[in-house]
C-alpha cells in the first residue's frame, strides 16, 4: 500500500458497508504518513454528502487514521477546547486517489473534559440488519468501540494532552 507524503493534500472518502460512497472531504493536508498511521489536518474544507449536498467545516481539525484499528478520530479545535468525533470504521486504505474507509455508523463524541457519548446505535442496528453484517464483523466493531473507549479513558493517542496542539502547530508551518 502506498502512503501519502507530508505536505500532500488529499481527499478522504467515506463509504458504507454496501460500497456506496457516503461522504468526501475535499482537502486534507497530510502531516504524517506511514504504513500504519496517517495524520492530517483541514480547516474550512468542503464536504460533499452522498446526496450531493455540500457544507464547509467550521474549525481546524486534526484527523487520525490507523491501518490496524477499526476507528478514526477527528479532533476539532474550538475556542473552548478540543472536541473529538470518533467514527467506528474499517481501517483506512490509501490508493493515490484518496484515503478511504467504511463508516459503520457507531460514533463517539468526546468533550473537552473527556466525557463522551456513544451516538447512532439505532442507525448501526438498522444498517447491520439491512446490509447483513456478518457476526464476526459485528464483534470486531464492538471490540474496537471498547478499545476506543479505553483510549479515551486512558488519554491515549490523539486523546493525550498535547497531541492535537502539536499536530496543529505542524499544520500551521505548512500554511505559512
Automatic annotation (TrEMBL):
Active site (record annotation): 23
GO molecular function: magnesium ion binding; nucleoside diphosphate phosphatase activity; ribonucleoside triphosphate phosphatase activity
Keywords: Hydrolase, Magnesium, Metal-binding
InterPro entries tied to this protein: DUF402 (IPR007295), FomD-like_sf (IPR035930), Ntdp-like (IPR050212), SA1684 (IPR016882)
Statement: the UniProt record of this protein carries the keyword Metal-binding: yes
Co-factor requirement: Mg(2+)
Binding site for Mg(2+) 1: 87, 103, 107
Domain DUF402 stretches: 18-156
Superkingdom of this protein's organism: Bacteria
Binding residue positions for Mg(2+) 2: 105, 107, 120, 123
Record field: catalytic activity: a ribonucleoside 5'-diphosphate + H2O = a ribonucleoside 5'-phosphate + phosphate + H(+); a ribonucleoside 5'-triphosphate + H2O = a ribonucleoside 5'-diphosphate + phosphate + H(+)
HAMAP family xrefs: Ntdp
Job of this protein: Has nucleoside phosphatase activity towards nucleoside triphosphates and nucleoside diphosphates.
Homology family: Belongs to the Ntdp family.
Protein's name in the database: Nucleoside triphosphate/diphosphate phosphatase
Lineage, top ranks: Bacteria, Bacillati, Bacillota, Bacilli, Bacillales
